[in-house]
Amino acid sequence: MATEVYLVRHGETMFNQLNKVQGWCDSPLTVKGINDLKRTADALSQVHFDNMYSSDLKRAIDTVHLMKDANLVSDIGKIKKLPEFREVFFGTFEGDDINQTWDQVAMAAGIGHEDDITKIINQVGLHNFREATKKADPRHLAENTEELDKRMVRGIHVLGDLTKNEKRVLLVTHGDFIKTLSIKYWNKSDGKHDIIFPNNGSVTRGILHDDGQFEIVDYNVDAEKL
Predict the structure, then answer these.
(1) What is each CA distance from 42 to 36, 58, 66, 216, in whole angstroms?
(2) Phi, psi of 97 (to 5 degrees)
(3) pLDDT in tens, 114-145
(4) Residue 192 CA to chain centroid, in angstroms?
(5) Cα(115)–Cα(129) distance, integer angstroms
(6) In whole angstroms, how far apart are CA 90 and each of 69, 86, 105, 151, 169?
(7) CA pair distance 157, 224, nearest whole angstrom
(8) Which helix (H) or strand (E) holds 129?
(9) Contact, 135 vs 124, CB < 8 A?
(10) Structural element, H or E, at residue 202
(11) pLDDT in tens, 87-110
């Protein structure tokens, strides 16, 4: 049985609002974030889900409970948290200013001062961007391409095992994780260059096939437009 996967990005957080790097570190949802999520939850309230899952980070857990509480046609039990679907890990840069961080990454990538992540990725490629992030990190803890790719593939396998008898599920995860997953599994991406960053509360829809193959079929869609 193929499983339809609604990947929902968590709502806006305090670190999003403050333009800080937020990977495995966490910050609370803002009032705006909660209000935006209520619109997403309302738009999905009549969509039947066999189950709901989330990353194990609190901003994702808080988001999935908003989705669960608003849904009128699904009988969802305890939410299972999946660490494989955490946000990308940025190591020592966690909590730092985003623009300053990308400037350091650009310098490590050898292209000089640049704080626009899209320009950096499109100039050096996503693989080299991840390698430069790890290189620029003073402790070299940030996830590189190989580490992140292994985690994404492992996440798909874990989700496949969990959803063998489920036709449609909702999974709350994170912006850079959804973007990187889509660069890998969406046929509208070439696998190298950047794509638009998904909005808070947006839905990216994937299909997990019987043979374990995964594909993205809709990316960064407002729930009202699904």
Answers:
(1) 10, 21, 10, 23
(2) -65, 130
(3) 999 999 999 999 999 999 999 999 999 999 99
(4) 17
(5) 12
(6) 32, 12, 11, 14, 28
(7) 30
(8) helix 126-136
(9) no
(10) none
(11) 999 999 999 999 999 999 999 999
